[in-house]
Amino acid sequence: MLERFTRNARAVVVGAQSVARRVRAPEVRPGHLLEALVEEDGILAMKVLAGLGAPGEEVRRVVRGLNNTYSDGLDAEDAEALRLLGIDLDAVLSRIDGELSDDCGPVPRGHKRFARGTKKVLELSLREALRLGDGFIGSEHILLGLIRGGDHTVLQTLAAFDLHPDDVRRAVAEADRRAG
Which residue spans within 106-145 are E strands per DSSP? Predict the structure, then answer.
């Protein structure tokens, strides 16, 4: 399937690997894919978001904040549930991060495996490309795959800019028609 990816889309997949290594994640999650996707303003996915009122630097700030707040799929609702049990999730994660940086040394190199959700996003990217009649998978298809996959980091990022997934889908389809 990777042979269908454009240069920019491949860079997103490779970038997601780098993000996962940097944060010492055991696998590449959809949030890592999103963080890699928003790194470059010149790609179609980011041009679409900017056209919808979500400029690159602001999107990057939101995505990094969401990815850095909680890990392994934990979110604010999880933190609240744990708080009711007397557990401070932020304190636990800070302690773990401190122990990892003290004990683990340099960030390990090499290929990280893709989480099930990330594999699903890449499969959905292919489906989105086919739906739009494209014979390639570009950054815009990865964005649509992330949205369709329902990843909470993606949906929270869109919500931060008052964007609905359908708004992004329509804008990508319009950009695809113009480029086609």
Answer: none
Look up tokens 């795959």; give the residue.
145
**CA 115 to CA 133: how far, in whole Å?**
27
pLDDT at 90 exceeding the cut of 80: no
Task: Find residue 5's DSSP bridge partners.
Answer: 137
Specify the DSSP class assigned to residue 137: B
- Name all domains of the chain by residue range, CATH numbers in brackets: 2-71+109-179 (1.10.1780.10)
Cα separation, 35 vs 100, whole angstroms: 22
Q: For residue 5, what are its two tokens?
A: 């990816």
Q: Are 51 and 146 in contact (CB under 8 A)?
A: no
Tokens of 54: 């979500």
Query: Whole-model pTM?
Result: 0.78
Whether the per-residue pLDDT at 100 is higher than 60: the answer is: no
pLDDT confidence band for 58 (50 / 70 / 90): very high
